[in-house]
Structure formats: structure tokens, C-alpha cells
Design a protein that fits this description.
single chain; 99 residues; mainly alpha; 4 helices
Length: 99
């Protein structure tokens, strides 16, 4: 993901997934996956997933650091990246996430 012109690695690690669950207060990651599958995710879900992915990739920032940041591709690209992170981290044969 490119933020403010700098490229960043994104991946969901066990630690970043735990932070994500706490941040979203999701009962389970499957519930979060289902929200994305059904298109019922919020911008808060997208932001939390992007932050978790960035932190899993070694970024040391927080969500507040992204408030004024320029994300290449805008909110749509961020939502696609969030869905792709979930698909790659938690492949589930019964859930298909849209790109």
C-alpha cells in the first residue's frame, strides 16, 4: 500500500489479528470476514484492517496517523486491500471475499 508516496508492506500476523479483534470488538474473525463478504463493512472496519496489516508489516504507526494521510487509490483501494488481507490471512472455503 502506498501512503503519502511511500510504499508499505501489509500482512496480518497473529499479533496484528489480536489487535484487530480488540479494536473492532468483533466476536470472531469469521464475523468480520462475513461483514466483508456481505458488503456490510464500515469505514472503521477498513481503517482497522489497514492499520493491522501495516503493523503486521512492521509499521509503527496508529490509526490516527492515517487520518490526514494520502492513500494511493483512496478509500476504494483501502477497502480492496483490507478484503485481500483477510482472504490471504484466513482462507476459508465457504467465504468468498470480493476484490
Amino acid at each position: 500500500m502506498t501512503i503519502d508516496g511511500a510504499s508499505h508492506v501489509m500482512k496480518l500476523t497473529l499479533g496484528s489479528l489480536a489487535e484487530l479483534e480488540a479494536e473492532l470488538k468483533a466476536g470472531t474473525l469469521v464475523e468480520l470476514i462475513e461483514r466483508f463478504e456481505l458488503g456490510q463493512f464500515s469505514t472503521r472496519d477498513v481503517l482497522a484492517l489497514v492499520v493491522a496489516g501495516l503493523r503486521g508489516g512492521g509499521w509503527q504507526g496508529r490509526a490516527s496517523d492515517l487520518i490526514a494521510a494520502e492513500i494511493e487509490g483512496g478509500p476504494v483501494a483501502a477497502a480492496r486491500a483490507a478484503g485481500l488481507l483477510l482472504r490471504r490471512a484466513l482462507p476459508c472455503p465457504r467465504v468468498r471475499l470480493h476484490e
